[in-house]
UniProtKB/TrEMBL annotation, chains A, B:
Pfam families: GHMP_kinases_N. GO terms for molecular function: ATP binding; kinase activity. It comes from the Archaea. It comes from Halorubrum tropicale. Keywords: ATP-binding, Coenzyme A biosynthesis, Kinase, Nucleotide-binding, Transferase. Its EC number is 2.7.1.169. Residues 91-170 form the GHMP kinase N-terminal domain. Transmembrane segments: none annotated. This is Pantoate kinase. It is an enzyme of class 2 (transferase). Belongs to the GHMP kinase family. PoK subfamily. It catalyses: (R)-pantoate + ATP = (R)-4-phosphopantoate + ADP + H(+). Residues 47-86 are annotated as: Disordered. Gene3D superfamilies: 3.30.230.10.
Amino acid sequence: MSSQRATAFVPGHVTAFFSAHPDDDPAVAGSRGAGLTLADGVTVRVSAPDGAVDGDGNDGGGNDAADASDRDANADGGSRTVDGESRSIGAVDDVLAELDATAADVAVETDLPIGAGFGVSGAAALGAALAANDAFDRARTENDLVRIAHAAEVGRGTGLGDVVAQARGGVPVRLEPGAPGAGELDGVPATARVEYVTFGELSTETVLGGDTDALTAAGEDALDRLREDPRLPTLMDAAREFAREADLLVPEAAEAIDAVDAAGGEAAMAMLGRTAFALGTGLSDAGYDPEACRIDAAGARLVER
Amino acid sequence: MSSQRATAFVPGHVTAFFSAHPDDDPAVAGSRGAGLTLADGVTVRVSAPDGAVDGDGNDGGGNDAADASDRDANADGGSRTVDGESRSIGAVDDVLAELDATAADVAVETDLPIGAGFGVSGAAALGAALAANDAFDRARTENDLVRIAHAAEVGRGTGLGDVVAQARGGVPVRLEPGAPGAGELDGVPATARVEYVTFGELSTETVLGGDTDALTAAGEDALDRLREDPRLPTLMDAAREFAREADLLVPEAAEAIDAVDAAGGEAAMAMLGRTAFALGTGLSDAGYDPEACRIDAAGARLVER
């Protein structure tokens, strides 16, 4: 099953609310919270150069790093693009290093805005993990790959819970923080159309790097509410309350949320981004010109090339 | 979000190998093992009669059973069909009782053969859980619904591991037996075409009701092999060895597996059914006229009606 090229798709993820749970071990660090995964997401294409894949695929064990001669041969590193432009993403580089796949050519493609609360960096990291594992025949399990991508994302400070949510798909609820083995997930069973509008970037690193005590208290309250009544309208209401209590609501999102509410719909702000998202036709009904997609049912997956 | 009708799709699941782990608690009982989920699966449509859904949806807590007046009103029970013919499935009935949704009209539809090792009964139970939860607005989480369907399937003796595998999708590896909260899953990251041929029924109840010691020893060996090298060809090879060691191989499946091997492909027998499945075009290349689909990436999900 050695293969030279592989492609993965990872859904976008808008976080409705969260609490931050740092830890020295990036696989244990993470967040509690909930959000929606989106059928709009990130596609990652990985090509292994000739000679980088063990032809016989018999490393002997699934979790061994490749041997030293591979690492030397790959020292130069392959190309990195985002939407066709030369650009690297820190968490992706860390994933490739962990899989001894830095020689890969990696193309990240997405229609989602970057830095606007859709978890694009986490999706790119997870997609790179899935596709590089396949292209380089690294024989890691899904849990291993999620753990590697989660640790890379946490290590770079660009996210705490997107990767595990994106791996699951649907409407993930992060009951306990961290990667598989440490974290614990559930889900709100739902299918729905989702609309979103973006007003600009918001730095995840800045918010997560500051004092997160008030944010975390508000996030825990929101999670308690959702666990009491695990339904989408409750998730949206808990998200609005979280944004207010954690003092994260930006004016453009607040205005959109109010407009959707006035039109009889349900909207909230994506954490962390200058983005409002709504169920059904909420934003359209309120006079916005949103992007629209559905909740993603599958979570991250390899796809046909 | 109260709704009167809902539809769920659940992938088929062919078990490659397994070990049986009985327990007095059906949510803790289950199996270790691995298999493939299939894009060919089971669709379950649930309609709630007028008055069976709480209009305001405010039970107050997510996990309350509905009140006694609902239960009385629903005592008669709704219709049950499988592929359009009047027929009930024990595990489905138990799921509906647990969700206080026996008044539902439930239609199960599948192109998969029943009793041939595709986990149709587990898929029907899980699909009924997802769709009834939605149609009756019962506010259960995904983990709750998987637990209910798993316990119903185990209680009826018709399966031990299909439900948790079908909930996950992909190529699920059951590391620890049981429903969410007890069990533990991983997955082999893979996408592939799968072909299958069925030669008749095999009673899961009879095999699981007999002495399972040899079967379980062989299943544990197979799982150890897959964990050492979590790749599809290893899964298929471990499955063939399991079928021989557990003395479960039926002649028609053995013949098909040998023919696929002779043609350079990978095939195995579905546990428990008179069914052979192969990766890629294995069965076609060996001269069979198989059904074909792909590995299902998503797992069980609500779908648009």
